[in-house]
Request: fold
Amino acid sequence: MSSDKTPKRPRSHLRNKEYSRRQFMVRTAGGLAGAAMASRGFPWGDLAYGQQLKGDPVEFNVAIRPDWTQGWFGMINQEKGIWRKYLPEGSEVTFSHPIQGGIVTNELIAGKSLIGHNGDAPGLIATYKRNRVDIRAIGLIGSSPSGYHCYQVLVRTDAPEFSDSKEALRWMADKVVATPKGSCSDRFFQDVLKREGVEPAEYLNQPIGVITTNLRAKKIDAACTWDPQGAAVSTLAGEGIARVVATGYPWGERDSGTIVCRKDFMDENPDLVKAWLKAEIETQMWYYDPRNHAEVLQIAQKYVKGFSHQALWFSLAGLIPEPYYGGPIRDEKVFVWNDEVHHLQEIVRDYLAKNKIIPHKELLPGAIDDSLAREAMKEMGVESPLITLKAVPMDQGYPLVQDAKRVEEYVALFA
Reply:
């Protein structure tokens, strides 16, 4: 590995920070409550107790996704420095904020970043770039059983009222629709339009900011995007320039996000990568703990500009109601691959291969390697899913999250 990509000693040692032990971890019989933390080893204490890696300090960059709610825990890790409890003392980690998965991959290829957060399609695409750099998928940043975070279909506000999501999709025949091409939203949108036999007049490649502008100006009829943008433009919780009419729920479509890492970095520093994954585990669990949601929103307002507080909360935990019911579970932090995620990614690879985005459907050897993630979970005494977060109605959850005196009532909504 060339020297410009090897973790370096930081220019100056960082001062140690003190972190209070976690005071709250909820356990439920079924493990399906919001913040259901499967934490056999550390049910009431600090997950990092005794876990800091010894050795020389290191310095590297991680690409995270504050623009995508499923990956928000990355900004929590950046803001609160949870990674400091796991990496060698004096280490320094910087963070970049790409707004789409392909940019994350480009950062890893260029050596700007060594670890990154990606969507399901871009995360898989990255593993086929071995003619440039060997990138492996090493963990999951989340997986909503009904695609809440990556499969948000929107229509302009003057569109008809529909009886359900499938009727809304059929309305898009001969209409102008848009999505960011190559994203998880794009893969899903193309798939369900085909399933419903719908051929739009135009299927445009537009970034999320342009989609917002064009929905406001009524230059497009519909779009598929991800949260928090979907929540921010919606009539449910945001600006009111579009209606959310579907998630993946009617088609049984799960979404997911991927942690990717350069293989040369893993080979030279397996203990370091495992220590980083431990920080990701604790951050994911902290992020979805309902007792921390108010602070999550405070941090989100620093990193995600231009969105209302209410829209940010809705993208975190809000329920999309009938007639476009989004499903009962907002997100699961499964962290490692299970049968459902493997099935999803088989569908994604099939789509990518048919569209000649990847050379073939078959995974390259070792493309998915969650062995270090599984070791990290075992050493921390946690199980998959780390947590499962319910979706709750906005009129119940949003007033309570703003009232520190009613935190117990807010937590109870997720049981």
Notes: The domain at 152-251 is CATH 3.40.190.10 (D-Maltodextrin-Binding Protein; domain 2). Residues 270-288 form the longest helix (19 residues). Residues 61 and 94 are 5 Å apart (CA to CA).
